[in-house]
Amino acid sequence: MRYRPSILGKLVEPLNRRRFQTIVDSHDGDAYDKSFHSWGHLMVLIYAQLSGADSLRSLEVGWNANCQHHYHLGSGQLRRSTLSDANWRRPVAVFAETFEMIANQLDRRIRREGAAMLRLIDSTPVPLGKVCGWAKSNGRIRGMKLHVVYDPDSDRPRVLDITHANVNDAEIGRTILIETGATYVFDKGYCHYGWWTAIAAAEAFFVTRPKSNMGLKVLTSRPIKVAQGDGFTVLEDAQVSLASKTNCKLPIPLRRLIVQRQDGDTITLLTNDLQRSAVEIAALYKGRWQIELLFRWIKQHLKIRKFLGTNDNAIRLQLFAAMIAYALLRIAARACRIAMPILRFCDLVARCIFERRNIAAIDKPPPVNPSKRRPTSTPNQMSFAYA
Questions:
Q1: How do residues 187-197 score in pLDDT, each as one tens digit?
Q2: Residue 130 has pLDDT above 80, yes or no
Q3: Which single residue of 6, 90, 119, 180 has CA 20 to 30 Å from 173?
Q4: Contacts of 243 (CB under 8 A, 6+ apart)
């Protein structure tokens, strides 16, 4: 019978072994672990994410109980102490660049002529609590922070960074490579005038919310041709400038929108885009909820609440492994044209992770083995003879 890979083996096929080894060699990732290589480490952590293993003991037992699949995955038996040591010493850059490699495969279409390159920027906290005494606090939570630049059109996190919880969002925003023609949508936590100026200088645009203490002076009012949008109404559209007592000025034109939501709340938007209509700009900011859905999905269906180690390196490795698992699930769902919701697909993968079946038919019973001989019957089997 023709060999069929397991669900896990099929999911990790987009990972190029040669390119991965190039990444490992560039960071000397296997310097201290001669028997437990980086590839096996990655396979184990991906399995932990997809299967739901939340402790070293359960991970060791579940992984070793399926040793017949290790050969085709390019890995071997696992020991808790070996995994713990690897989590402590292996360079995080190995998994970070691997995520970047696999995330590039998420682009599903070429950008249409005239369509906006939308980039959503936000961060989400990863609480660690008192178990990790080294973790820093931002006044609300003690732990780490996951920063993401998300492309909603291709469902791809284009930039992923992990910092301590007390790192300001604007500091990470200034390190992002600005793409010409792109529109960056972010909240008021990314308020930095120098960064806004750099976005405008790169011929890109931003849509954000100003801080409550930001003084703005109306220069001219702009006519509102269409005020009604999907779930909101534009109340005001005006070109503004900073009204500061000091010499703090932005050398770029600014536009302020006042938008009333359907539930009655009123929000203020700020942008350097003078061409789009007010309704289009308000709709861009409304689309920021897509990155919130990404964060909610990650926290609900990937194992980033319980960690396999308590040191900084182990937590970062597990977070990057979680995002690699996320990208592999999205690639498989798209390649196999999975019609079911991604949540149900993720549940089935967890339950059938080492079964040899077709991913496209993961919700159906496996076919009968065609090589197995079936009982044959004769035409006269049920006939009776009378004297």
A1: 998 998 889 99
A2: no
A3: 90
A4: 215, 216, 217
Cβ 25 vs Cβ 39: under 8 Å: no
- Here the contacts of 199-208 (C-beta below 8 Å, separation 24 or greater) are 199/272, 200/252, 200/272, 202/178, 204/178, 204/179, 204/180, 205/271, 205/272, 205/273, 206/271, 206/272, 207/183, 207/269, 207/270, 207/271, 207/273, 207/281, 207/284, 207/285, 208/269, 208/270, 208/271, 208/285
Torsion of CA 355, 357, 361, 362, to 10 degrees: 10
Torsion (CA) 39, 41, 46, 48 in degrees, nearest 10: 160
Residues whose CB is less than 8 angstroms from the CB of residue 244 and which lie 6 or more positions away in sequence, other chains included:
215
Q: Which structure tokens are listed for 295?
A: 């964060």
Print burial letters for 13-32: b (CB count within 10 Å at least 16), e (below 16). eebeeeebeebbeebebbee
The answer to whether residue 249 scores a pLDDT higher than 80 is: no
Mean pLDDT, range 117-129, rounded to an integer: 90
pLDDT of residue 246: 54
Sequence-ordered list of residues with C-beta below 8 angstroms from that of 270, at least 6 positions apart, any chain: 207, 208, 209, 210, 216, 240, 254, 255, 256, 257
Six-digit token string for 125: 């906290």
Q: What is the pLDDT of residues 292-307, one digit of tens each?
A: 988 988 888 787 878 8
**Residue 105 pLDDT class (50, 70, 90 cuts):** confident
DSSP 23: H
CA angle at 149 for the pair 148 and 153, rounded to the nearest 5°: 125
* Phi, psi torsion values for 71, nearest 5 degrees: -60, -45
Q: What is the DSSP string of 110-155?
A: PPPTT--EEEEEEEEEEE-GGG-TT-EE-SS-EEEEEEEEEETTTT
Calpha distance 172→190 (Å, rounded) = 9
Distance between CA atoms of 284 and 385, rounded to whole angstroms?
84
Nearest C-alpha neighbor of 184 from the set 52, 321, 76, 288: 288
pLDDT at 111 over 50: no
Q: What value does the mean pLDDT take over residues 377-381? A: 57
How confident is the model over 25-71, as pLDDT tens digits?
A: 999 999 877 789 999 999 999 999 999 888 899 999 999 999 999 98
Other Cβ atoms less than 10 A from the Cβ of 120: the count is 24
